[in-house]
Amino acid sequence: MTNFELHHRNCFEWLKEQEPESIEAVCTDPPFGIVEFLPHEIEKMRKGKGGVWRLPPMIGGSQRAPLPRFTTLTEKELAHVYQYFKEFGNCLFPTLTPGAHVLLAGTPMLQHLVQKGMAEAEFEIRGAIMRLYRGFRGGDRPKLAEKEFSDVCVTPRGTYEPWMLFRKPIAERTVAMNLRKWRTGALRRISTDQPLPDTLQSSKTPKVEESISGHPTLKPQQLLRILCRSLLPSGEGTVLDPFCGSGSTIAACKAIGYDAIGVELDHLYFSELNRNIDALAALYPFFKGDVLDAHLTGGVPKMRRKQKMQIELLQ
Ligand SMILES: C[S@@+](CC[C@H](N)C(=O)[O-])C[C@H]1O[C@@H](n2cnc3c(N)ncnc32)[C@H](O)[C@@H]1O
């Protein structure tokens, strides 16, 4: 039986009130460029007009969901990204046990600012786990000169999303001693024979998951269950998602059997959390994040009879 708590709060304020050294891991997808989840930008996104949220071009006649555009960020806004993550790191640091790992989803162009901010807050930079998938970022020809420069792309076509990995320094002499005392300091292997790799094959969030939550940046359960599982080396402890959005991380923890805490600022997203978590956690009941390359199919529980749930191993 897992426990989860949900808080309708600003996570910066919430973190400052928590017991020191009380949380073992963090897995979160924070606002990448900060401005995109400010109340006035969410308002514009919900109205479908103006702001940093842009509708990408139609593909095969189907309209795609709005995406935030980070190339419009000014020098001042970029400096704010760094300051934001430095402050976030400072609020988070005391709450975590020594050796606790933090996974932050990011975007390649802003990754260095996030890492700089977290390092200033005394976290160790431990590389990143790359989610490999076919995204919509980059690969375009120069605007208004597409025909003239038909063989050119301004940036490479994005096929990965970095999940930046940080660790609060261990407090004991060795990792083994830290693991014994705090249960943290390392990552859980996929299996005894297989360490966690730093690239994970992923895909777009499946339609069945999008039909549960309309959150604009919903992450897939296949990815989140692998990531969350890896964060607690002994399988014990609590995973925090301070920017929990739809509740997808909390759902992944629930499916695995981990305790979790979610914090969300927006009233509408918060009001949908309990329902989303139950429905997302009920998908793919055999998948606990301990298989790489699992191809998940199947629907919400009421569809089970018609559409048999299965995990097909591609390898
Ligand atoms: C990128 S989304 C996370 C989406 C999540 N990965 C999912 O799968 O649903 C970031 C979320 O953080 C929330 N947020 C932004 N600032 C916050 C803050 N200071 N405290 C708590 N939540 C915040 C936003 O409302 C948004 O829902």
Characterize the main sheet: 8 strands, mixed
Beta-strand share of residues? 15-25%
Overall geometric form: globular
Strand arrangement, largest sheet?
Answer: 1-10-9-2-5-7-6-8
Known CATH architecture: 3-Layer(aba) Sandwich
CATH class: Alpha Beta
Query: What is Rg?
Result: 20 Å
Overall pLDDT: 87
Bound molecules: S-adenosylmethionine
What's the total number of strands? 12
Q: Secondary structure elements and their pairing?
A:
Elements: E1 4-7, H1 11-16, E2 23-28, H2 39-47, E3 53-54, E4 67-68, H3 75-92, E5 96-105, H4 111-120, E6 124-132, E7 160-167, H5 175-182, E8 199-201, H6 207-210, H7 221-231, E9 238-241, H8 248-256, E10 259-263, H9 267-271, H10 273-282, E11 294-297, E12 310-313
Parallel strand pairs: 1-10, 2-5, 2-9, 6-8, 9-10
Antiparallel strand pairs: 3-4, 5-7, 6-7, 11-12
Helix pairs in contact: 3-4, 7-8, 8-10
Bound molecules: S-adenosylmethionine.
